[in-house]
Amino acid sequence: MSKICGIDEVGRGPLAGPVISAAVILPTNHKISGLADSKKISQKKREMLFDEILSVADIGLGIVSSKVIDRINILQATYKSMIKSVENLTFMPDKILIDGFSVPTSKFKSEGVIKGDQKIEQISAASIVAKVCRDRLMKMIDPVYPDFDFDNNKGYGTKTHIEALKRFKATLVHRKSFSPVKYNLPTATIDDDKINNEKKKLVEINNEINNWLKIRGIIL
Predict the structure, then answer these.
(1) Which residues make beta-bridge pairs with 20?
(2) What residue ranges do the domains of the chain occupy?
(3) Which of 35, 52, 91, 169 could disulfide-link 186, Cβ–Cβ 3.0 to 4.6 Å?
(4) Whole-prediction pTM
(5) What are phi and psi of 104, to 5 degrees?
(6) How far apart are the C-alpha atoms of 81 and 60, rounded to whole Å?
(7) Considering only CA atoms, which of 220, 86, 80, 211 is closest in space to residue 140?
(8) Contact at 8 Å (CB) between 126 and 134?
């Protein structure tokens, strides 16, 4: 039986935080029910399905930071995260199906499926894994920047987020190439000690999320 891998990303649209892709290979005899587009199911249901997926699936994750997004643009960063997710699988799949469009790479062949997260269970599972992981990361970042309400908006441009951006200016996790972030960059008189402290906290969070993922068998 051929190994089918589903890939989906979360985080193309936010003003802050990384874009994350998950690659998932489900066993043919899995008993998971209720797989669907992660955006169309509740947080409680997503987390239940997340645990079920983790218990049976081969999962690879690809994370690309806001800094890299600014350097290569969000489309290329999304492709990069998808390629990384496949490279981080334990086994190379026989077929790779991606929500939306295929990835232009010589490393593997892929097939795009429009609304694949609603049609293909492997893509649905990837959508759930990517969203739970990204939501958790943004929740962990929230205490570093409490004014931006990242716990609730996950970096998307809500009214509260935009107001905070205008008042407090962009943080280290904002995508500075995105509007309206690029019009609300910090001034040159920034507090170096404050920035260094934030960098230290973000490094600690990065280590913490990596440990959390490894404990759950998600390969980075």
Answers:
(1) 10, 63
(2) 4-136, 142-205
(3) 169
(4) 0.95
(5) -75, 90
(6) 10
(7) 211
(8) no
Rounded distance between C-alpha atoms, residue 120 and residue 118, angstroms: 6
Place of tokens 């407090």: 168
- 133's tokens: 């992981």
Contacts of 121 (CB under 8 A, 6+ apart): 6, 26, 32, 35
- CA separation, residue 75 to residues 81, 124, 141, 177 (Å): 10, 21, 24, 13
Q: What is the CATH number of domain 4-136?
A: 3.30.420.10
SS3 138: helix
| Both structure tokens of 78 | 């999304």
- In tens, the pLDDT along 162-220 reads 999 999 999 999 999 999 999 999 986 667 888 999 999 999 999 999 999 999 889 77
For residue 34, how many C-alpha atoms fall within 13 Å in the half-sphere facing its CB? 15
Contact (Cβ atoms closer than 8 angstroms) between residue 121 and residue 14: no
Tokens of 164: 């905070």
Name the phi and psi angles at 59, rounded to 5.
-125, 135
| Strand bridging mode 111-113 / 95-99 | parallel
